[in-house]
Amino acid sequence: MKVLYLLFSFLFIFLMPLPGVFGDIRNPVTCLRSGAICHPGFCPRRYKHIGICGVSAIKCCKKP
Predict the structure, then answer these.
(1) Under a CB-based contact definition with an 8 Å cutoff, are residues 33 and 5 in contact?
(2) Angle at Cα 53 formed by Cα 41 and Cα 62, nearest 5°?
(3) What is the domain partition of the chain in residue ranges?
């Protein structure tokens, strides 16, 4: 029975979402901390859309 608890704990740790990998950026503070910019409308050329900055019209854009 203890092996079953150990198995579930390992599954829980390995299946947890990693911050910055699977998490969405939804506010300007986390966007700027990740080294990106907040830009209204579409992202500029050579920038990748990685999230939003509070409002869906303002995108968080980062150079790849």
Answers:
(1) no
(2) 75
(3) 1-62
Please tell me whether the overall predicted TM-score, pTM, comes out greater than 0.85 for this model.
no
Local confidence pLDDT in tens for the 64 residues of the chain = 678 888 777 766 766 655 544 457 788 998 999 999 999 999 999 999 998 898 888 999 999 8
| Number of neighbours of residue 53 by Cβ within 10 angstroms | 23
CA atoms within 13 A of residue 12's CA, in its CB half-sphere: 6
Question: What architecture does CATH give domain 1-62?
Answer: Roll (3.10)
**Structure tokens given for 19:** 């911050």
